[in-house]
Design goal:
heterodimer; A: 64 residues; 3 strands; 23% helix; B: 436 residues; alpha/beta; TIM Barrel; 13-stranded mixed sheet; 23% strand; globular
Chain lengths: 64, 436
């Protein structure tokens, strides 16, 4: 996600705003701020989060 | 009186002549025994499980050894095409000398001449798979060699990714300059013999007071960012009631201490007498005692069966030490069909996991949450904290002539390097009971 890019919810046509969002993985839950639609709650998960910190969490939690 | 029930068939060895013979897991009451009969030397029975957890649940669907499988095991060991696991860790004996004379010792130090540095370097070149190998420098007591730093740097030059030192910690405590040299040479982490939190235990098992030295060794290693994993040999009636205290000590020493690796006593090498069932400590008892003695802070469900080695060979638990206590990472999630985690894990994956926890990060800092109170659910905080304060509770139950189970042996991933051969640990150190 480019820093200043405005992202619009495709359903509600509202601008997504940064919100604390929880993720669940292997029985654990984590939160981080990501863009979320203020109306319907749709979130935008940028590729760098998926390939970066989320992948790292996954690696740390996976049993050997 | 309970009726004995055969619950599993396998193969073992006669404890006297070490011939390969059929064996059974036999359930009698709440205990499970490995029982076998040698035509020449008679009947033998060793307790292997005390059913604090049902053994069937723990083993899961691990394949049984069939009649026509692993026929040369363990006599012709060397890893052969029938061996079912790769090499996770390679153990290399760099000396047979030792500065202790312990009551129990698998290596049974002989105080013979050390192999030359040149010879050790040649072995390291032979055993290393560049970028992968985790080599454990063992003995005897490796730190009695003044050229240990050269051995470590040679291991790194040969391509070993991780160099582990198995040590009793005495020299690490007494010679800080030596620790600095080990660190500079590229030592990754230390497995340090640590049998308990009081010297009564040390006197019983090692003959001398050692606690102050052990604490100093941890401090000296911490000064050079070398992670230390504590390795207690668990002997019933000696230190099995010290588990809770030992874990509390280890957790308080995090991040310098990276974990505790329990080793229930096994009866090979130098042992005081032939083992009876009362002197055996089974994995399920250990797990039970961990939960009881930590007052539930560490739960049995967070300690899961080994999937790299055979489930009866060990367990692992993955944790992160928080400012207020310890949080489990492993065993929180179970999916149907994977309840026992019996799907084997490769030696490569296992090695990456353990090394990630046992090695201290170079740029390690006390991690703080963005919030006032550290919150493990904060993704950024978790990622920092798990790297700095990851903590493992693991166990390895070595086998001896009494409880040797070839179904287990063929899954072994800890291999001793001996002149070009990789030999599963328990096959290498296997000794018959008539040690006259």
């Amino acid at each position: 996600m480019a820093d200043n890019k405005v992202i619009i919810c495709c359903k509600c046509k509202k601008e997504l705003i940064p919100k604390k969002v929880y993720f669940k993985y292997l029985g654990h839950s984590f939160f981080t701020d990501i863009l979320k639609c203020p109306d319907c709650g749709e979130v935008f998960i940028p590729e760098e989060l998926v390939k970066g910190r989320m992948a790292e969490v996954e690696m740390q939690l996976e049993d050997k | 009186m309970s009726i004995p029930k055969i619950i599993r068939s396998t193969y073992s060895v006669c404890p006297v002549c070490l011939s390969r013979i059929p064996a059974q897991h036999v359930e009698i009451g709440s205990n499970v025994y490995l029982q076998k009969k040698c035509v020449q030397h008679g009947f033998f029975s060793s307790v292997i499980w005390r059913s604090k957890t049902p053994i069937g649940e723990w083993i899961g669907d691990t394949p049984r050894i069939k009649k026509n499988e692993n026929l040369n095991c363990p006599k012709a060991c060397g890893i052969c095409p029938e061996h079912r696991q790769g090499t996770c860790c390679v153990l290399l004996e760099v000396t047979s000398r030792c500065n202790l004379r312990c009551k129990y010792c698998f290596a049974d130090s002989r105080n013979t001449d050390d192999p030359s540095l040149k010879q050790v370097q040649a072995w390291l070149r032979q055993l290393a798979v560049p970028g992968k190998t985790l080599v454990q420098l063992s003995g005897g007591e490796p730190t009695v060699r003044d050229d240990l730093p050269e051995i470590i740097s040679s291991a790194k030059e040969a391509g070993c990714r991780y160099v582990q030192l198995n040590s009793n910690g005495i020299r690490l405590a007494e010679d800080k300059e030596f620790v600095r040299k080990l660190a500079e040479a590229g030592l990754s982490f230390v497995f340090m013999q640590f049998d308990g939190t009081n010297d009564e235990i040390n006197r019983k098992l090692r003959g001398v007071d050692l606690l102050a030295l052990k604490k100093q060794a941890i401090e000296n290693c911490a000064a050079y960012n070398i992670g230390v994993t504590l390795v207690p040999t668990m002997v019933p009636g000696v230190n099995t009631d010290n588990i809770g205290e030992l874990l509390r000590f280890a957790i308080a020493e995090s991040p310098a201490v990276r974990g505790v690796h329990f080793q229930p006593v096994s009866y090979f090498g130098r042992i005081p007498e032939r083992p009876v069932d009362e002197v055996r400590y089974t994995l399920d008892e250990l797990i039970y005692d961990i939960e009881v003695q930590t007052k539930g802070q560490i739960k049995a469900k967070n300690l899961i069966p080994s999937r790299c080695d055979h489930p009866l060979c060990g367990f692992h638990g993955d944790f992160v030490v928080m400012p207020h206590g310890i949080e489990p990472l492993s065993g929180k999630y179970t999916s149907k069909g994977d309840c026992c985690g019996s799907e084997p894990v490769s030696a490569d994956k296992n090695r990456a996991f353990v090394a990630r926890r046992w090695e201290r990060q170079v740029q390690e800092q006390e991690s703080h949450s963005c919030c006032s109170k550290p919150d493990i659910h904060d993704m950024d905080y978790f990622l920092k904290r798990v790297k700095s304060h990851g903590f493992t509770i693991t166990a390895m139950a070595f086998q001896d002539a009494g409880n040797m189970d070839l179904e287990r042996l063929r899954r072994c991933s800890l291999h001793v390097f001996d002149n070009g051969r990789f030999v599963p640990f328990c096959a290498y150190y296997l000794t018959g009971w008539d040690m006259t």
